[in-house]
Amino acid sequence: MKIMIMTDLEGPSGVNGRSDGIGNTMPNRTTAEQALVNEVNACCEGLFAAGADEIIVTDGHGGSNSIDIFKLHPRAKLLQTGCWMPATNLDSTFDAFVQLGAHGMQSSGGYMCHTFNSHSVCRMLFNGKPIGEIGVCSLKAAYFHIPTILVSGDETACKEAEEFLGRNVVTVPTKTDINRYSAINYPPEQVYAQLREQAEKALKNLQNAPCPLLPEQCELIVNVMCPNHADAPEKLGIERLDETTLRYSGDDFIDIWAQRLGWAPGVHKRKYGVTPQWVHPCSKR
Question: Shortest CA distance to 132 belongs to which of 145, 150, 149, 109?
Fold first, then answer.
């Protein structure tokens, strides 16, 4: 079995910061990175114990330089992303998807909550319902019929995962969020033990893991914080509903997400030919 672990840096136990610290200038960056790789390694141990043959860890935090490969589980592979990548790092060769170190969407009240960019995005709606990074990443996996089996992060992030994916998704809370900048961290060794146990349990129960059905028509509404954040998308053909509201629509979720990442409508699909059966040229079983 082939598994992808998508990581973020806000969610592990022991990570702290403020709004001006989200990103590469997080004040306890060294501690945060160690906390993240420890949680990744614990999850890998559980997944391998459950029969995983291959685990690819995607460094999903800003800059994709949060994981030291020399500290990573010796059997895990590390994917660091750049602007050349397609709109998804997943493909149809994966069997399961995990999100570690997650955080809640903007305005959720969760610890260091934001939606992809804390300085430009106020809110995102997918087919009329609020969506954050957990939901978007789950839908990218679902596009290739890959279930999301486990999500870890603060309690708000875990609740968001359960509300979006249903109770069958396994969650591992790492801290109690008091507000956007304050949290009570759970004992790290306790978190690691739960990640090992729950990752093994989740993969063994793969057949019951949630995989959302993508609708035939997709609409993504993005409210940005400043009018100039909507200028470039409008120039690429994205519908602008008002000064700070953009509407992405179509029948292909990955192409819509590619548009959000800066591709003109249809261009990403023509370049990469991504479909639910797509296999990345570099992907090997």
Answer: 109
Taking CB atoms within 8 Å and a gap of at least 24, the contacts of 111-115 are: 111/10, 111/154, 111/156, 111/175, 111/177, 111/178, 111/179, 111/180, 111/181, 111/182, 111/183, 112/10, 112/15, 112/17, 112/19, 112/22, 112/180, 112/181, 113/156, 113/180, 114/22
Query: What mean pLDDT is predicted for residues 29-44?
Result: 93
Cβ 166 vs Cβ 210: under 8 Å: yes
Here the tokens at position 12 are: 């592990």
11/245 Cα distance (integer angstroms) = 29
**3 state DSSP class of 167:** coil
State which amino acid sits at residue 188. Answer: P
Q: Which residues contact 270 (CB under 8 A, 6 or more apart)?
A: none
> Does the structure show a pLDDT above 90 at 104?
yes
Two tokens, residue 82: 């750049």
The domains of the chain are located at 2-119+132-208
CA angle, 135 as apex, 212 and 121 as ends, to 5°? 150
Whether residue 26 has pLDDT greater than 80: no
Which tokens is 113 given?
Answer: 């909550």
Whole-angstrom Cα distance, residue 143 to residue 135? 12
Query: pLDDT confidence of 62, banded at 50, 70, 90?
Result: confident
For β-strands 2-7 and 54-59, DSSP reports them as parallel
| DSSP symbol at 283 | -
pLDDT tens digits for 169-193? 999 999 999 988 889 999 999 999 9
- Listed in sequence order, the residues at least 6 apart from 82 whose beta carbon sits closer than 8 Å to its beta carbon are 64
The CATH number that domain 2-119+132-208 falls under is 3.40.50.10780
